[in-house]
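Issue 218. Parser rejects a valid record. Input:
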Amino acid sequence: MDLASYLLKPVQRMGKYALLLQQMMKACPETLLNSSERSIQEIEDLKLAEEMVKFQLRHGNDLLAMDSIRECDVNLKEQGRLLRQNEFLVWEGKSGKRSLRQVFLFEELILFSKARRFPDRKNLDLYIYKNSIKMTDIGLTAKIGESPTKFEIWFRKRKPNDTFTLQSMTEDVKKIWTEELSQLLWKQAIKNRAVRMAEMSSMGIGNKPCLDIRPSDNQISDRSISFAQLSRTVPRFRNSIVGPVTEACRNVKRPHSVISMSSVSSSSTSSGGSAGTPTGQGGSIGHGSYESTCDSPKPYHKSATLNSQCSVESGIIADISVASDESFDPANAGL
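Output the parser choked on:
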């Protein structure tokens, strides 16, 4: 006996297992009302076993059908798992003629083929490759008019001849296919968004174009400034003007004032010009964010801190207004 003869009985036994589980499930609802938790758990286990056996039978048939595809210029091993294959009536384009196609759904590809059947050889049908569409290029219309068995797939760069209208033999097949396609498109959209955010982060943009200015250690609100101490530590320039300092200004507080860590390096070069400008009773020290006069009408300058406005990923200071994360639009998923 050859290998196929030895494998015949195990394959037939799988079909008998499915029939046995179906009969057991039919007998379960009669005893479900007055059953205990243990009985309910056993019924759930039966349902899982039935689904597993049905999946194995269907998946085995799908793999056999995939091996029968001919004249295909696509490497099917690189298209992910084969999820489903069914027979559909297909209209290509808006005014295309109707044709019968065997359609294969992979994780990354939809393939259309034409069946070539041999009446004298059962289960040895061949499928001639016609065309295919990458999942990254398609969109889905789950309902067409009033038909319960039609749905449409189309290229995202939509043209009249880039649409395929599929009509299944039953409503259940159409429902299963549209649900499977929707799940694939959602996963693909989420994956693409994650890749895009990673690319933005690597380019120094980050996942937030702008960040909120939050309190940090660099903030110097409610801190006392001693001009006497500063006058001893800061070098005097030729054109610097130091006037009398009142007691009110000696312990002045600077509410809502923030020092910019990024401006420290440039303050030394700008301090020469700013120090020479009289500002009333006191002198400007050169950081450009402080008015020395206590009753100055000018509002205190706010400068962004490195911790508050720098992107964590890039370290680039974004000197733009606050904006929230971009919302994720389901329409962009091609649904």
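Fixed in the parser; the record now loads. Residues 261 and 306 are 6 Å apart (CA to CA).
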